[in-house]
Specification:
ten-stranded antiparallel sheet, about 160 residues, globular, about 40% strand, Multidrug-efflux Transporter 1 Regulator Bmrr, Chain A
Length: about 160
């Protein structure tokens, strides 16, 4: 059952790409080198890695960021960049299972929101839905838990102010 939580603003370092579902690995594969770059600079992640969906384009294409939360003012080299997740109220739901179930889990949260009458932090832009805060936080390290059916992912959707 989803819940509503308050979250503070959080700095992060990420890379961004526009991909379809079939090419999602192209952005997902950027997380290990990004974490390695942070480690090489003596910076420990300040939380689990995540995907931030910025724009949902027609035809199941996404402008998405693969990111890692950090403390302080680290400035990465391009193509990585520093950003900030906005503070606010978020709907939180936890999904346990393989990544191929995330589409259905996301649809369930959005359907719950429609029934509850929540207003999402989303606007219609020229390229599709532009989200202020829509995240998949990867709470399971695949190197530690090999079975994707046991992976834990937090789904977070920012509410409109």
């Amino acid at each position: 059952m989803p819940s509503i939580v308050d979250r503070p603003a959080q700095r992060y370092v990420a890379e961004r790409a526009t991909v379809g579902i079939d090419e999602f690995a192209r952005i997902a594969d950027r997380l290990p080198p990004l974490i390695g770059t942070l480690a090489g600079s003596g910076i420990a992640p300040a939380g689990a890695p995540f995907f931030r969906y910025r724009v949902l384009h027609p035809g199941m294409r996404f402008t998405v960021e693969a990111g890692v939360r950090v403390e302080g003012g680290f400035t990465p080299e391009e193509p990585a960049f520093a950003g900030e997740l906005p503070a606010g109220k978020y709907v939180l739901d936890t999904y346990v299972g393989a990544p191929d179930g995330l589409v259905a889990a996301t649809a369930a949260v959005l359907a719950w929101g429609a029934v509850e009458g929540v207003a999402w932090d989303v606007t219609e832009g020229p390229d599709g839905e532009e989200w202020g805060g829509r995240l998949e936080v990867l709470r399971t390290n695949p190197l530690e838990v090999a079975d994707p059916n046991q992976w834990v992912t937090d789904l977070l959707f920012r509410l409109a102010d």
